[in-house]
Amino acid sequence: MSVELDVFVGNTTIMDEEVYQFWLDGYTVNDAVKVRMEGGVLEECEASAEVLRSDTMDQYRTFQMCERLLHSPAKLANQLLFQIPPHRQAMLIERYYTFDGLFVREVLGKKLSKGTKKDLDDVSAKTGVTLKSCRRQFDNFKRVFKVVEELKGPLVENIRQHFLLSDKLARDYAAIVFFANNRFETGKKKLHYLTFQDFAFCAGQLISNWTVGALDNMVEDMDVDLEKEFLQDLKELKILITDKDLLDQHKSLVCTALRGKTKAFNEMEANFKNLSRGLVNIAAKLTNTKDVRDFFIDLVEKFIEPCRSDKWTAGDMRLYLTHYTNSAHILDTFK
Amino acid sequence: MPGKLKAKIVAGRHLPVMDRASDLTDAFVEVKFGNTTFKTDVFPKSLNPQWNSEWFKFEVDDEDLQDEPLQITVLDHDTYSANDAIGKVYIDIDPLLSCEAATVISGWFPIYDTIHGIRGEINVLVKVDLFNDLNRFRQSSCGVKFFCTTSIPRCYRVALVHGFVEELVVNEDPEYQWIDRIRTPRASNEARQRLISLMSGELQRKIGLKVLEMGGNAVVGYLQCFDLEGESGLVVRAIGTACTLDKLSPGTAPNTTTHTNTHTLPNTAPASNACNSPSKDSKESPLAHGCRSTHNSPVHSTCSSQRLSHSQNFSVSVPTLVFTGMGSGGSVGKEAGPLKTLLRQHTQSALEQREFPIFTLTCFPPGFLVHVGGVVSTRSVKLLDRIHNPDEPETRDAWWEEIRQEIKSHAKALGCHAVVGYSESTSIWYTLYFKEVCILSASGTAAMLNPRFMREGCLDTGGSDHRFEDASPPSCGFVHIPYDEFNMPFPAQLTYCYHCRRQKVPDVLFTTIDLPAEAEVTGKGCLIQARLCRTKKKAQGEVNATSISNLLPFMEYELHTQLMNKLKLRSMNALFGLRIQISVGENMLLGLASATGVYLSALPAPGGIQIAGKTPSDLSYDQHISTMQKRIDDTIAKNKELYNIHPPECIEEVVGSPIPDRQRSSRLFRSTSESSDELSELDLSHGKKDAFVLEIDDTDAVEDIQSLLTDAPIPAGFYSCNTEVMPGIYNWTSGLQMFTSVRVYRLSNANLTNQGLNKIFTDLCENLLKSLYFKLRSMIPCCLCHLNFTVAVPEEELIQVRGHTYLSTPLQSWSGENEEQLQFSMELCGESTISNNQPTAKPSAPSVDYGSFADRCSTWLELLRLKAHTIRRGSVKTISSSERCSPLPEGRSRSLRSTRSLPCGAPVTVVKMTPLSFLPGTRIVKYLGIINMFFIRETTSLREEGGVSGFLHSFIAEVFAMVRAHVAALGGNALVSYSMKECVFMENPNKNQAQCLINVSGDAVIFIRESDQEAIPPLLSSRQTSSTGADGTT
């Protein structure tokens, strides 16, 4: 005797969040059943493995049918096929678009192309995230990227509106899109210590300060691209390191402000010229796409590593950069 | 020319991509009614076209209005080749023809294609202008209201019950062997859908005409069925109860209490007899008197002889069985007490002129039901022959007529003049090359009815009626025997009623009706199922029919024994909602009986079950028996606890004892039935023995007892029943969910014995139940109401079990422990987002109320408020419902519920579906019309669609979606009395093909929550005034 057909359909679509997570994580039905059995649902209500399997299959089928709708979440609310209460809809969407921090670190800044998708099995092996889940996450990145690419207006808001995501998740996606668009290199060994959230913070800063949208909300361009004009203007900073007088003047202003405020003062004073040179050089090169990609690696090599070797604290860094910027504003050239 | 139908095509959305090159679609729409077709312009290159067409007007006869559906076809324009069809929408405009129902159909409908399923949605507006022809109700039956509900609809009162109406129409099936046809399957399936839609329209109109002839204005308990007789044709038949209903004005609307759900009618008896008032019920506690331990199963079965007529139709044997009180052709009423005779005379006249005193109702207004005799049922095996002349479906008519006559005579034998809770069904076995075999079944409950409801002008006469009422107090009256105790049609143990001590009652009562609201129940009820599987030799034609009819009585007998055993095991003494289904397959017969067992306080306590061995010589054997006995006794004790059955201990009372001698002699007097067969008299009473004795001298009986004990106990926190209300539990929250589950099993071993098959079948049913419990584990404590299974044997070695149920959570003052448990489980499933901002939530409710419902409800409330708002502002009237469905962002901006906005237009109206005739905790304020839909879906890429399960899963989901859309378009928010009457699934895995037919029906309604009543009147009145104004009563 074997079950040929087994379906269970409710007028209001029933979903088990636990099973949904298994499905999202790319478990096969068999694996999910195994995990659920170990979880002790069976003892809870005296069900047999058969019952559990049938339930899991039902849920998986429902999720598969819903997946098409999840690709354009706005449809989920006004489709007629599944009657799902709004808060469940929100849960479905949010979970579907949630991604693994480990996985995203692997593809951050890479081109969201077929080639990258082909390499996902390596990523899966490396991160321990199932291939199926990797593909879903990758496709989510790509889908969001494609939709917002065409849109005008603020990036985060666009993502939030089109994919009905929470603010947090929308910001994370904005970072992913931003990185993918500018192809920032994040995979180098020296950058490994940085988490996705670190990069997401940087992306947030870059988006709100360095893009076209950042300067003028009315501009009919999106804020995925760094503003060319701004990058061009950055070249003028070179004067800070090429003009000896200016360099000294800048240094003395910074040092005056910093004196007595930090333990690392001596190192700061000693390294000022090197550090300033490093920063300005990075800024001045950003008109080259290639150098944009290396932005983070350069930053780490030329600036962060020297500071770290001098045992600066985070507070030191903040202090230094604040005064570095403020002092520059006082210089005559920049008035 | 009495009507003008107007349709407007507004827009489409989510259309499929029809042009691969552009990834877009050039869509246009054809609107067809009868032979007239209109077209919209092509809306080029869009998946969300805005046609905004003019009003297409069809001037038609009202006869056509009733028969024909409005056909809307969405196509993709193609300059070079033929236009491709995207899909269709059929709209039944019948609800618009009754002035009290909906006034406009407006909303988003899923565009359906038999191959691709739902492909986008279309927004349509439909209206009907009926010309004010004084004679219009004579020409057709427009205006007759139809209800699937088997009780008097909630917002009506019954003035008169006219009686049984039936009709059937026959046609040739446009396609029988779908795979082997030359024309494309799609074309033939579409033809089939259209034809059935037409046929059911015609059927409804014809029934309506009969109702008008009888002087009624409504059909209640309308049951329409399809018989897909394969090559012999397609039969659409319907039965119902004709009534005259009066709409209740809001002022007099009865305050429906949520717990006694059947009491929605005002007491139609103007005298309002004291004994009718529910308050008295509570005062009359059952008296503790005699307790009998003797038990006897009052069942008697007859099989009339096989009538083999080889003329044109082969008809085999009508084995009949009557439970709890039946004799075939037994002499009745000659020695009846004067009161009964009077009653009989009184009602006889009212029912006499009727051919069939049969009622499809299962729930009755108080006082309607006087006495209940027992279940009467008839089965008949027929060989199907091609229907030669579809316009004269005489054969089929004659078959059913014969069966109804039989039912009627059984009822008479029970001393009853009417049959209530009546239903008919068929089971057809298809073969490719031979004539098909079909079992026609009918069953009902023999009853005595109060004549007050039958005759015109009798409503206000109190005098004689009072005497009947006095004779049988309402809370126990219906269990009193209607037959004469000295000349009983079957052997039964009679005792004086444990409630009133004045009238005799049987020891066990089986019925097909719902538990009457006035009945007093001890403890809680539960679902009882008897399952049986019998092998049958493969055969064709007459041989097959004969062997089936030979098996039927045995199956009935065994099902009955099982039911009786299980009932005793649960210490209960009455069954309600009994439904026995026997399905025929190529090499087996399946029998499934479901009912809800209860302990009626007025009936004597059931005795235990005693096991006896015939050869008690062996010591170990004795031991074996005593362990078995112990197990049974333990189970009974456990069940008593479980169902909370603690009847007052009674002392044996002399007065209560029956008159055994007379009784025995009465059996001798009983006239033998017309049968000449040796099987003719099956005495199901198991002899007259003290207590219920099971003899385990053969393996069969051992098997029986084993199965009795292996029925898995229902998990804690769950209650189940197959009736509308759960006996013994009265506090309900709003119902939550409706589920349908379909399973098909393949038997791997074809050479199974009866016992092996039985075990498998029982396991299947048990497993399905277990699955339900498992899935709903997070909802406990909850009750599965209307839990009904349908079995079929679609192919050799395949068994299909289909169940649908409705879940309700009882709202009770649970102990603290339970409450904790509940909250825990809610957290488990993450549904703890109870919206506390719901202004009307009762303070006691939230702990049991589920977030999902509260959410949905608040959505609905918001919509109501929105609508009320717009109407008050003076915006246009009937747009309200389209507004709800159109993608305007209004709904969202006003949302109180969530902080997150969903920028995708107004949410889709939540439509609840339930097989019950009501929604617990709510009040139905308006019936919008009947929904009766038939869909066919097929696929030629079965594997790609996720195999058979994937295919059927999405099809059922699609059917639900289409039903919801139609309800919403009528302006409703729920479908009550929902049923899926047909679900025929066929597959051909080798060709990667499958096909499925589904028929669903129900009543579209508007409901409001009990607690929100104050908030409603402004809306409803404004809605009313804004509509036709014809209906100012809601």
TrEMBL record, chain A:
It comes from the Eukaryota. GO terms for molecular function: fibroblast growth factor binding. This is Fibroblast growth factor (acidic) intracellular binding protein a. GO terms for cellular component: nucleus. Pfam families: FIBP. GO terms for biological process: platelet aggregation.
UniProtKB/TrEMBL annotation, chain B:
It comes from the Eukaryota. The keyword Cytoplasm applies. GO terms for cellular component: cell cortex; cytoplasmic vesicle membrane; plasma membrane; ruffle. Residues 250-293 are annotated as: Disordered. Keywords: Calcium, Cell membrane, Cell projection, Cytoplasm, Cytoplasmic vesicle, Lipid-binding, Membrane, Metal-binding, Protein transport, Transport. Residues 252-271 have a biased composition (Low complexity). Pfam families: C2, YbjQ_2, YbjQ_3, YbjQ_4. GO terms for molecular function: calcium ion binding; calcium-dependent phospholipid binding. It is found in: Cell membrane; Cell projection, Ruffle; Cytoplasm, Cell cortex; Cytoplasmic vesicle membrane. The keyword Protein transport applies. Residues 1-109 form the C2 domain. One of its GO terms (biological process) is positive regulation of D-glucose transmembrane transport. SUPFAM superfamilies: C2 domain (Calcium/lipid-binding domain, CaLB). PANTHER family: C2 DOMAIN-CONTAINING PROTEIN 5 (PTHR37412:SF2). This is C2 domain-containing protein 5. It comes from Hucho hucho (huchen).
